[in-house]
Automatic annotation (TrEMBL):
Domain HTH luxR-type: 801-866
Organism: Saccharothrix mutabilis subsp. mutabilis
SMART domains the UniProt entry points to: HTH_LUXR
UniProt xrefs under PROSITE patterns: HTH_LUXR_2
Gene3D superfamilies: Tetratricopeptide repeat domain (1.25.40.10), Winged helix-like DNA-binding domain superfamily/Winged helix DNA-binding domain (1.10.10.10)
Source organism superkingdom: Bacteria
Entries under InterPro entries matching the protein: AAA_16 (IPR041664), P-loop_NTPase (IPR027417), Sig_transdc_resp-reg_C-effctor (IPR016032), TPR-like_helical_dom_sf (IPR011990), Tscrpt_reg_LuxR_C (IPR000792), WalR-like (IPR039420), WH-like_DNA-bd_sf (IPR036388)
Keywords: DNA-binding, Transcription, Transcription regulation
Identification of the protein by name: LuxR family transcriptional regulator
Pfam families in the cross-refs: AAA_16, GerE
Amino acid sequence: MSDRPKLLARVDLALADGVALLNGPRGIGKTTTLNAAVAQAHARGEIVLRANGACTERWIAGQALADLLASCPGEVTADLRALARPARRGTRTQILRRTGFLGLLARLTADQDVLVAIDDVHWIDTVSADVIAHAARRADDRIRFLFAGQDAAAVPCQASWITVPPMTVCEVADLLAPHRVTERTVSQVHVEAAGNPGVALAVCTGQVRGHVEDALATLTATAWDTVLVCALAARPTSTLLHRSGCSDPDADLEDAVECSLVVVEDGAIRFTPPAAAAVVADLAGAAARHHVHRRLARAVTSAAEVQRHRALSHPEPDERLASALITAARSARRSPGFAAELFLMAANRFPPEKPGRRFDALLSAVEVGVGAGVPGVVAEAARAVLAESANPVHRVRARTALVRHAGQSAPGASDLLAAAEADATDDLASQAGVSLWRAYAATVAADPRTADEEAARAVANAQTIGDTITEAYALALRARARRLLRRPGWKACLDEALAVSLPDTAGHMHLTPQHLAARFATYDDQIDEARTILQRLLGVAEQGPMEDLMSPLCGLVEVAVRQGRCTEAMQHARRAVRTAGQAALSPGPGWYVTALAELAGGDLALARFYAEHGVRACTQDGDVVYRLRNLHALGQTLARQGETRQAIEMLREVQRTEAALGHADPTVLRWQPELVLCLVRVGDHLEAERLVSATRELLDGLGARGAGAGLDRVLAFAWAASGRIDEAIDLVRGAATVFAALGQPLEQGRCLLIEAAVHRRRRRYTAAAHSAATALDVFTRIDAVPWARHARAVAARIAAVGSGVQDLTTTERRVAELVAEGATNREIAQHLYVSPKTVEATLTRVYRKLGLRSRAQLARQLDRQS
């Protein structure tokens, strides 16, 4: 889906004032937007005069004006054509050009409105620019001017500037769809390109070098130097550029941003895409690189960065320099991506007679760099270990680190673990590590039986060698698996894991017992406790690799949705999506929580996009856990969009998969209430009540009051459909009370909507209106935008039906109700002791008062569901 229609609406609004300029960096989509606006103008029947500026033609006087005249409909007189001839010069000629072009536009508007559209306006010749600017200043409201490019002489000062925004990840996904890239690639490219479609296509098609060369061709020599300094600095900033001797770095940066080489965010400078930095460095040559590194060594203030630049200016093997880089890397552990780069540099500078120190540095580069957004560093270091080291322990460490690097990608982990297991036969520590990561891979595959078995092996081996850290992580995985299977001892496993002090969790946040405790608290509706733990973990994660941010961020989105903190949920979700792209992680988890956040406080169409793409991403990665979650989110979205049978298909797939894998904890995903609701809507009441009963049995003993209340909410809907109105009212009110006590306003509001629906079935329109209004108040207070929109529509329908019914007499209302229940005229006559003709006449009056024409319309009007 695209936000471009909104952009075009902004363009139309700006053109109402006569002149608009589309602005933005190269490749952002200015030309595409201008073309779309031109197409709309053609569709409205307007005359469009079109010209394109060109760098090579900017010296040809009158060229742009000639292009505009050439696009005029019909014949342009010889006098007018002469105005664009380059040979004609002088003040009088220019005045004639101005008046002649303005007169032409005035004649064209006699029958139709006119749009003058000029792309790359900054490249048009000065003669044409003067004439066009004159016309733009003096034209009437039937002539509009749309420019694309940078500020130029042709653009009058009164022009409305519209900056074309970066593409959303949704738009980048649509853009790259013909290239059949993976969802993970879409996520990564969106972040790397900063949403710039031109850059995104360059990355996707392998044309980054061409993109860089084209951009550099537009820069001055001093700007080129500034860009090279940025490319070689570890953390380029404007301050560093000044310190390194750049003459006018701020102006140079503006030029680099304009040609889409870099973006500046919160003072930090980064290349778009990041690979462009390496291309810039390569194009500069070794001598220039060494010179700039020497400049930077004098300019940086961090000791670690000083060592980095000294090493890069002297690339030969040097044990003393390598040792200094190791020390610098250890001091930079709070910036794991930078530290990993330093470890790799150190490894490559140890002389051949020091292989042990080289392998230690390589392994550190792999283990520190995983999830830190430096996949190239990790891959190079891991390849070197696996190709050069004969030590099986080294190879196991490299491969298990790469399992972490694979993240949610189960297929990628499988081959790595098989090879690691072959190397681990004679070392208990290696065996414990392999079993731990096998348990994790099984967890990603939603296979709790295998996860429990492998985690038990990891615990046993870790206990034998006294490795309490591996033991704690394995116990946490056992607790997760055993709870999902409803096996005894899961709480004891978690308590034992929580008792272990973990000095450094960098890169393992998703395995920590504390993170699992937060998950279990969420399942058990102890939302405040879960939020407290997750906020603390987020603070810790911010000091480690980006990978660590994902677990607390995703958990905080779920907690925020439950607590009705819709704005907070959206913020955390956006950060999770950005983090996944920066660290080259699977987008599946981030897209799932973004779908949840959109369902609660955003837009249903966006929720559907993220859930659908999340399903595809997880399918590609073999991540069954988040595939089920995205299917659940997609099912919810389809149900709310009225596609009930498709929603049932999604939720049934979740049901079948969980059953096959032995999942027996309905507090985790809570798809059952959504499926019950859909089953009732298609009339399968018996199956709906069976599902409620089976889920209640699984909930027995878990103590999750919110899960039970969620079942009560949808069971009330089922009972109302079966005619058990009073019981349904009592049940749904009880559920609303539970959710209010748990501090879950979103679910409380949903209960109120069900209550309104139940009241409508009994024709209690005043009570129904009160319930809908209360729900609207709840949703409005917590910024639950789509739910508030839904509640407002429900309230409007109730008001419309209620006001119409109030106009009916007692007899008319009774006849209408019997019709809605499916009675024939004869049956109604027998029931009311009147003749069929009387019933027919009464029904005619009902139709007239309610503005209806058939029995079916009357039934829908009185019995429409919320």
